Each structure stands twice: as structure tokens, then as C-alpha cells.
């Protein structure tokens, strides 16, 4: 508990300012903290200014392999320029964020000699050392029972709302009537 009527501001995380300021003990007991506005001093405006520093984050930089960290710069957008840092640097570990993300391409044609189709996935985000630049997905064109396997193009955007329902489609590249059911998705709107 603080001494009656006084609060030592050296306990606040402020830049090397030490000051003793009168505070009404009843306010301290009720709020469990001093009311900074009771101080008629530069510390009040400094603490108030620190609370109003707003920053805009920039993009994440590529992973630094030597430290296994990535960083981005935060730039001051509003706040007292005398009391706010113009830029800050935010850092985080690459491990959690370094997963390989790929853009999935379209299915190629069915190759008669292998009876299979291939589509290529291209790396769009991730560590070039840990992630393959491209991956191939290969599927047989025909099921074991001899029927055509379903192959689809990419999903199109959702259509406008009509009677409380939205639809989106994808092209059936190969397959019979049963594939048409899997080429449409619906949702309420």
C-alpha cells in the first residue's frame, strides 16, 4: 500500500522520470491505482501521450535464416511525435509462420500411357530451402471399376444472392453425371 496521499511515479514504466505526486488516498483505494489526472505535471501529459500512439504495420520481411526470425516495421500514424517513437520493429519466430503455401494449378489432360492426370502446385509463400518450388499431384483417370474419375477446374466466385441462396460452380473436366452434383456449392445469404 502506498503512503497516505502520495504515489511515487518511478514505479510507472516511463522514460526516466521520477516524481512524487499527491493523490487522494480514497481514490487510490477505490480504483486500485492512482488517477494520473490528479497530477499537475509533465508526467500526466507524457503518460496520456504514450497511450495515444497508434501505428500502422508494414508487411512481414522474409525470414532471416541466421536468427530464424522475421520482422516488420510499425510506422507511427497518430500520436504526440515528441512522446511516440516514429517507428517500432516487431519480431517473431519463423518456425510457426514458415509453412509452405502453394497455388494449385489446373488438371492437365489424361495421359493415355499412364492413364493419369497431373496438376502442378507452385510455391507462393514459404522458405525456399524448406519448401519445394513446385509439387505435382497425380491421379488415375479411371477408377478401379473402370468408370471415369471426376476431375474439376477451379471454383468460380460466389454468384449474387437469389431467393436467399448463393451458388458457385466449377467446371467438370472429366466425369459423368454424378460429377455434376459435386461441381456446385450453395449457401444461405
TrEMBL record:
<dbReference type="InterPro" id="IPR038130">
    <property type="entry name" value="PTN/MK_C_dom_sf"/>
</dbReference>
<dbReference type="InterPro" id="IPR020090">
    <property type="entry name" value="PTN/MK_C_dom"/>
</dbReference>
<feature type="domain" description="Pleiotrophin/Midkine C-terminal">
    <location>
        <begin position="51"/>
        <end position="96"/>
    </location>
</feature>
<dbReference type="GO" id="GO:0005576">
    <property type="term" value="C:extracellular region"/>
</dbReference>
<dbReference type="GO" id="GO:0048332">
    <property type="term" value="P:mesoderm morphogenesis"/>
</dbReference>
<dbReference type="GO" id="GO:0008201">
    <property type="term" value="F:heparin binding"/>
</dbReference>
<feature type="domain" description="Pleiotrophin/Midkine C-terminal">
    <location>
        <begin position="99"/>
        <end position="143"/>
    </location>
</feature>
<dbReference type="GO" id="GO:0008083">
    <property type="term" value="F:growth factor activity"/>
</dbReference>
<dbReference type="Pfam" id="PF01091">
    <property type="entry name" value="PTN_MK_C"/>
</dbReference>
<protein>
    <recommendedName>
        <fullName>Pleiotrophin/Midkine C-terminal domain-containing protein</fullName>
    </recommendedName>
</protein>
Amino acid at each position: 500500500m502506498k503512503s497516505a496521499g502520495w504515489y511515487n511515479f518511478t514505479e510507472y514504466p516511463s522514460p526516466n522520470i521520477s516524481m512524487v505526486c499527491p493523490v487522494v488516498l480514497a481514490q487510490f483505494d477505490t480504483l486500485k491505482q492512482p488517477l494520473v489526472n490528479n497530477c499537475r505535471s509533465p508526467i500526466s501529459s507524457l503518460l496520456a501521450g504514450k497511450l495515444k500512439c497508434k501505428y500502422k504495420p508494414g508487411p512481414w520481411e522474409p525470414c532471416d535464416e541466421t536468427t530464424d526470425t522475421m520482422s516488420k516495421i510499425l510506422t507511427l500514424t497518430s500520436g504526440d511525435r515528441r512522446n511516440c517513437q516514429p517507428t517500432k520493429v516487431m519480431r517473431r519466430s519463423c518456425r510457426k509462420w514458415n509453412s509452405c503455401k502453394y497455388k494449385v494449378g489446373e488438371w492437365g489432360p489424361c495421359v493415355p500411357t499412364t492413364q493419369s492426370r497431373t496438376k502442378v502446385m507452385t510455391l507462393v509463400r514459404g522458405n525456399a530451402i524448406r519448401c519445394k518450388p513446385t509439387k505435382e499431384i497425380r491421379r488415375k483417370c479411371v477408377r478401379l471399376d473402370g468408370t471415369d474419375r471426376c476431375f474439376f477446374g477451379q471454383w468460380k466466385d460466389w454468384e449474387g444472392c437469389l431467393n436467399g441462396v448463393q451458388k458457385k460452380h466449377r467446371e467438370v473436366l472429366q466425369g459423368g453425371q454424378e460429377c455434376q452434383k459435386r461441381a456446385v456449392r450453395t449457401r444461405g445469404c
